[in-house]
Amino acid sequence: MVAGAPRVFVSHLSGVAVFDPNGDQVGRVRDVVVMLRVGGRPPRVLGLVVEVVSRRRIFLPMTRVTGVESGQVITTGVVNMRRFEQRPTETLVLGELLDRRLRWLPQGGGATSATTGEDAGEEVTVLDVSMVQLPARRDWEIDKVFIRRGKGGALRRKGETLTVDWSAVTGFRLAEDGQGAENLVATFEQLRPADLANVLHHLSPKRRGEVAAALDDDRLADVLEELPDDDQVEILSKLKEERAADVLEAMDPDDAADLLAELPADEQERLLTLMQPQDAAGVRRLLSYEERTAGGLMTTEPIVLRPDATVADALARIRNPDLSPALAAQVYVCRPPDETPTGKYLGLVHFQRLLRDPPFTLLGSIVDTDLQPLAPGTALPSVTSFLATYNMISAPVVDESGSLLGAVTVDDVLDHLLPEDWRETELRGAEHLGPVTESVDGR
């Protein structure tokens, strides 16, 4: 959905069928999960509660929703079947927000009715709320509230309904005082993962665990990737094993493998068993390589396309906002299968070449075959030299049979070239967040 598209009223989603990209039904929507935010800002929509065939209720993140259309919800096809458990920072729209009694403040400018401000502060009932997708992003938020005026008796406008802005009603908003993890998470929602990692690093272990438990899986995964090893292990050990497995699935495979490598073998195996088989397979493959080699450094999720894909297909893939700049810099052309390890690796196409050719051009006709790929056993110094020599920020890793195993990115190489404690040194030196950290920790 883009800017200007119709808003979606949450009550209309109740019972709507959820489909994967192939048209197979996954389940039906039973509720919408949001996170309230401080300062009167509209709530962020985290995901949907979906009831699958077995009547189990699972959580579907909005990042895995590709379309909310009339009468149906379309997903990426990647669905975690673990039972939904509501967390402290989460609010269910249908279960907790509708039918609530609130105060309506017309002077806030939120009313879309012609009603004047003479009834400022009157009590109203919430009948529905609507959500919209933010322009150029996959994030969704609640923007409007559908209310009914009057609370009984012979009020002049009893029963009148109207739609107002979220900011025009009070009673929903998150209190800005107190030390609850809910407030802390909401306050730092806009921080980059590296900056939020700095906040967590300076909190007490108890407080760090509370905040980590309140973060959603994707956000916690991003933050863990920016923390020192000891902080990662500490936080992961405090999560329930099923939740820990979910977070590992949300991490980049190479970062998940690095974190698991820090754990005892029995704990490592338990978590791998709890992970989705496809995610676990990629991580197991990474754990089988020596740490300071191309195989140990690579990610198993580069952009892979077939030779009959077009430039337009490739550009659509690299626009994915979840991709790092290094992974979005080029696409790897391979024979099927498209998942690593792929079929025969044919070569790569840099995004600059994609910008120079017509959208209908086949990748097979512009693929660069001159650059020799790395073997998985290539040592770190040779990987570094390869990237520097050819001015690359990402390089393919191919096995003896010619299958693409993954790609090594320059950020992963830098992680291993810097001193082992560079993250802790960086976090200790990040003074720009110091005063905020102290205030939220109560010290």
The number of strands is 18
Please state the average pLDDT score.
84
Rg estimate, integer Å: 25 Å
Query: What share of residues is helical?
Result: 25-40%
Task: Indicate the overall shape.
Answer: globular
How widely separated are the two ends?
Answer: 44 Å
Which secondary-structure class do the elements indicate? alpha+beta
Largest sheet: 13 strands, mixed
Oligomeric state of shown chains: single chain
Total number of helices: 17
Into which percentage range does the β-strand content fall? 15-25%
Low-confidence stretches: 109-119, 152-156, 430-443
Task: Name the features.
443 residues; alpha+beta; 13-stranded mixed sheet; three-stranded mixed sheet; 32% helix; disordered C terminus
Describe the structure.
- A hairpin with a 5-residue loop joins strand 17 and strand 18.
- The model is unreliable at 109-119, 152-156 and 430-443 (pLDDT under 50).
- The strands form 3 sheets. Strands 1, 2, 3, 4, 5, 6, 7, 8, 9, 10, 11, 12 and 13 form a 13-stranded mixed beta sheet that branches.
- The protein has 443 residues and is of the alpha+beta class.
- The two termini are 44 Å apart.
- The protein is globular.
- Helices cover 32% and strands 22% of the residues.
- It is built from 17 helices and 18 strands.
